[in-house]
Amino acid sequence: MKNILGREIPEYIEGYGTVKAFKGAFASLREVERKAVKLQSAEPTEKKVLSSIKDAIEKCTIKDGMTVSFHHHLRNGDYVLNMVLEELSKTGIKDIRVAASSIFPVHAPLVEHMKSGMVTGICANYMSGPVAEAISRGELKYPAIMHTHGGRARAIESGDISIDIAFIAAPTCDTYGNINGVEGKSACGTLGYAVPDAMYAEKVVAITDNLIPYPACPIEITQEYIDFVVEVESIGDPNGIVSGTTQITKDPVGLKIAKMTSEVIEASGLLKKGFSFQTGAGGTSLAVADYVKKLMQQKDIKGSFAAGGITGYMVEMFEEGLFESLFDVQCFDLKAVESYRENKRHQNMSASMYGNPHNKGAVVNNLDVMILGATEIDTAFNANVTTGSNGMIMGGSGGHSDTAAGAKLAIVVTQLVKGRLPIVVDDVTTVTTPGETIDVLVTERGIAVNPKRQDLIEKLEKTKLPIMSIEELKQIAEKMTGTPEKIEAEDQLVAVIEYRDGTVIDTVKKI
Amino acid sequence: MKNILGREIPEYIEGYGTVKAFKGAFASLREVERKAVKLQSAEPTEKKVLSSIKDAIEKCTIKDGMTVSFHHHLRNGDYVLNMVLEELSKTGIKDIRVAASSIFPVHAPLVEHMKSGMVTGICANYMSGPVAEAISRGELKYPAIMHTHGGRARAIESGDISIDIAFIAAPTCDTYGNINGVEGKSACGTLGYAVPDAMYAEKVVAITDNLIPYPACPIEITQEYIDFVVEVESIGDPNGIVSGTTQITKDPVGLKIAKMTSEVIEASGLLKKGFSFQTGAGGTSLAVADYVKKLMQQKDIKGSFAAGGITGYMVEMFEEGLFESLFDVQCFDLKAVESYRENKRHQNMSASMYGNPHNKGAVVNNLDVMILGATEIDTAFNANVTTGSNGMIMGGSGGHSDTAAGAKLAIVVTQLVKGRLPIVVDDVTTVTTPGETIDVLVTERGIAVNPKRQDLIEKLEKTKLPIMSIEELKQIAEKMTGTPEKIEAEDQLVAVIEYRDGTVIDTVKKI
After folding, report:
1. A50 plus A163 within the same structural domain
2. Across the interface, which of B39, B43, B365 has its CB nearest the CB of A42?
3. What is the pLDDT, as a whole number, of residue A244?
């Protein structure tokens, strides 16, 4: 069958189930249900600390076919996913589904577990490196499921993903399972992506390299959700967990795009008292923040909040009083960790509070402006951040689709041509985020506004900004590169791309 | 039928259902389930602020037979329960169950709603004043259900109480439903008792007298649980919400009991590094804290935490470094509110985290010493804090049963005789807390240790403390007062006393 975007999708997928076709970004908002959760209540005198991951696996009575989950707050420094799967591989268990909020190059050993048949399913919101490549080559038994950050929370809360055992990497944990991310040698800041796992998994194991006496205040994930605690030598490599600082681009093309973007924001009328803003940690995105900052200073604008994964750059704007608060699902650098530890208005948020479309209102719904990237964008404004133009998985939505759907003004910023390939195309290789939720594309050669935003087109046409149609941008790009050849994908489906509401927006084929 | 304590209880109660008999304090710990929750997911552009309580009631489509809930953080200053019921009474609705975490004298207008038939059921963890008296006189259609603080959280999470609409008094709330209790003219501190209501009710309405721009950081109850926000002139009377400061008793008998109690604690061996402690806000309880404080100072002991409803007195001990942290479900005075606002190690806890026996481990499980009161205690150490010896409801468990079950050493402190009535009796009028969870009774005339605590008896017999059997204490009391007459209760059952696990430990009859 075809979904509303015209993407061909199966009605049923082995290892996934019946497919619900994507019907539009806001078609599924209605009465929903957070699932019931089975748990074993604690005896008052019971201890939670176990001597090893092996012990925890035994106590949780793992079985073939179960789903185990992990969070990605330790990013490319994470040791926990590999340690747990290594231990699992010794048990002879098979047919395990790994529900990781994201997968990084450090998780390369997972490829061997795919090949051995221990791991036959993977869900993630983002994946890069050897695991993503192996999945693209068809080495996972069942198609991977790619969620958005908010969609993963939704899937866990609704029971679409039923987690049997959540393994939570805990930078600091006390003997009764209270966890915080702000202390310890592996401090990573907020733990927003781990919250749904803790609340909805049947068994929850905290794995820490900083086991401290009760209680681990300030507590972020609380004891009543944790079954067991295991101390290990190290949960991660500090160099991979947080970067030192995040940097604004020095590339003149990036700076040009950023400046134009700030002018779009200014012209939109949203840049006023109470302004709210989110951007990623990339160099061009930070450059946008820098231009926005200068505008806010010039005009003496006090914003309400900045949100998302938080960088030191956002912390600076917050500390200068340009924003009242920060909403932080994940700290990107040490400065953000420090600020979150010290400042009560640097507020943590769970993945559900951040972006789940099926709760009573996520933070993304209050965003004025969101700055997004894209590897491709098509003439219907559909954006791809999941695959390269060669079809290889090298990313995923993360919060892309969530923030695009929530923000009043969602802007994709990108160079028009990258690596001799045009970024604007007739059809993106993979749809990650539907065009109806993207308002503007800013490139160094021109700016295209989604035709559904006539109000914005009128405002921007009054400026000197180079406004043109997205088809014109595509033609400019193709003049530079030639028309790109269509890639030939095989029939085998290797990943299912779920929109945040659990419908299927696209699939990825074997390359 | 009779339960394990020999209390006669029906097998079925109209308006309550099938009775599960109490089988012992730790008999029900096993696999349990947190219930599924239906909700209406928000449209991204939807607003939550409504113009009145009347509007909120209409939007929530209230029906006959529904359960509406309230928290008691505003105590005897609360306006919200009365305002909502007043509005409900204009709709002609009937057969409503009011699930309030506690009911105070200020809630007297509820009596009229009982008489009119609008309110036919009430659940509460504690009740005093006209509503308690009217229930005792048989003026509520169905028996009231009395929970413990942890038991109410359990009942809400399990679905034993299914809340249709929770009305949450919010000292500060933003336009998207984020709530905190530390700012605004009605600031009351932590909001621990309201957390289960917010998480498990189908509809949740925040009622605030301090509606502020988004976001209300530091947020305690988050937006994803809130459907609607209503601003009113005032949610409560500041004089009734928090007392100025709490005071140590000056009564010499109270001081004597407190000193002996501190000596019992010392002799128990629990007073060492990592010590944890909870006491109520009464004058004798605070005097115990004062003696414990001096012992901790003398011996240079650093405790881990103090818990419960937090008083300024506990804040002082915390600020002097005698405790690493405070676990706060409810701030008792302004000093506690201030400390909670300013100090990240003054940690809030939900009612479930505090005392729910059916989660993965509540804070009470980590308590070393708990200081409790009692209106009566029998020779099996069963304690009554629910009814007076005349059978009139004038209290309830609150956290009494929860902390007694969790603490390593649960001590009841009381004068041996009050108002010419002996406190130690053959059978308490109403069992609130089972004797198996109470370790010691300290009175001015002597100390009785529960025979099941032979270890403690051995330790205390090495001291000069006046250790005797509880029967001896009873005899001393009866020599002073004469044997009390048995009260004659009528057959009509007016309240069901649920133990924290949802079994029925006793009932209260009409007087």
Report:
1. yes
2. B365
3. 61
User: Positive or negative CA dihedral for B76, B80, B84, B86?
Assistant: positive
Judged by CB atoms closer than 8 Å, whether chains meet at A361 and B405 is answered as no
Q: Which two tokens stand for residue A461?
A: 């046409």
pLDDT number for residue A280: 85
**What is the pTM for the complete model shown?**
0.97
What is the four-CA torsion angle of B204, B209, B211, B215, rounded to 10 degrees?
-70
B1 is a domain residue? no
CA distance A428 to A446: 19
Q: Is the pLDDT of residue B475 over 90?
A: yes
Contact assignment for B364 to A44 by CB distance below 8 Å: yes
Number of cross-chain residue pairs from A and B with Cβ atoms under 8 Å apart = 186
Residues A235 and A268 occupy one common structural domain? no
Bridge partners (DSSP) of residue A182 are none
Whether residue A215 lies inside any domain: the answer is yes
The CATH number for A484's domain is 3.40.1080.10
pLDDT digits 0-9 by tens, A288-321: 999 999 999 999 999 999 999 999 999 999 999 9
Is B508 contained in some domain? no
Q: Show which of residues 209-268 on chain A sit within 8 Å of chain B, judged by CB atoms.
A: 213-215, 217-219, 222-227
Closest-CA residue to A305 (of A338, A320, A280, A327): A327
B278 plus B223 within the same structural domain: no
Q: Are residues B435 and B338 in the same domain?
A: yes
A59 touches chain B (CB under 8 A): no
Using a CB-CB cut-off of 8 Å, the residues of chain B touching A357 are 41
**Cis? peptide before B218, omega within 30° of 0:** yes
Query: What residues of chain B, 151 to 180, have a C-beta less than 8 Å from chain A?
Result: 176-177
User: Are residues A204 and A256 both part of a single domain?
Assistant: no
Gap between the Cα atoms of A389 and A429, Å rounded:
6
Same domain, B377 and B420: yes
**Is residue A455 located within the same domain as residue A326?**
yes
Burial (Cβ within 10 Å: 0-12, 13-18, ≥19) of residue A51? exposed
Task: Name the residue range of residue B299's domain.
Answer: 252-488
Counted domains in chain A: 2
What is the value of ipTM here, to two decimals?
A: 0.96
Per CB-CB distance under 8 Å, the chain A contacts of B406 are: 44
Query: Which chain A residues are within 8 Å of B355, Cβ to Cβ?
Result: none
* Residue B496 domain-assigned (yes or no): no
Taking the C-alpha atoms of residue B266 and residue B296, their distance in angstroms, rounded to an integer, is 10
